[in-house]
Amino acid sequence: MIDKVTGAGVQPSAAQLKTLIDLESRFQPKLSGLRLIECAQDNGLRMTAKLRELEVKDLLSLSRFFGFSSETFSLAVSLLDRFLSVMKIQPKHLSCVGLCCFYIAVKSSEEEKNVPLANDLIRISQNRFTVSDMMRMEKIIMEKLYWKVKAPTALHFLRLIHSHIQEQLDSER
């Protein structure tokens, strides 16, 4: 559904923007969960905005390392935020959660031949958990997100708005 609204060659319109907004409302992270993260003090026992920010930087590094698309990175961050907004996790589990969100995004967005093995992801990211830990966490994430992976991201909105602006500029020439 998202590809029909934001795919290549799609002309932006108010209807497309409304469709994207309607879709987004079903996938947005719960504000109450995100507020808890924003307000949390760093005592080593609770998630904080700073820890989330560091995890997002790790996801960006992994995306760049593997040469994955911006869509993959954006989806991984969306999955991370959606999961963190519904589950309280300890900071020690954040790297596993982040890597699993990345892995889910990769499997959803990239060609199958480009999807790295879980073993390789763990090794490259220098994490200290096992493939079975990762598979268990992936299942938990998917269950908590009701198996709904593809969701509108900020990137979808940016691309739609950018193409609309570009179209307006082109028509003025």
TrEMBL record:
Residues 57-143 form the Cyclin-like domain. Pfam families: Cyclin_N (PF00134). SUPFAM superfamilies: Cyclin-like. Keywords: Cyclin. Coiled coil: none annotated. InterPro entries: Cyclin, Cyclin-like_dom, Cyclin-like_sf, Cyclin_N. It comes from the Eukaryota. Belongs to the cyclin family. PANTHER family: CYCLINS. Essential for the control of the cell cycle at the G2/M (mitosis) transition. This is Cyclin-G1. It comes from Oryzias melastigma.
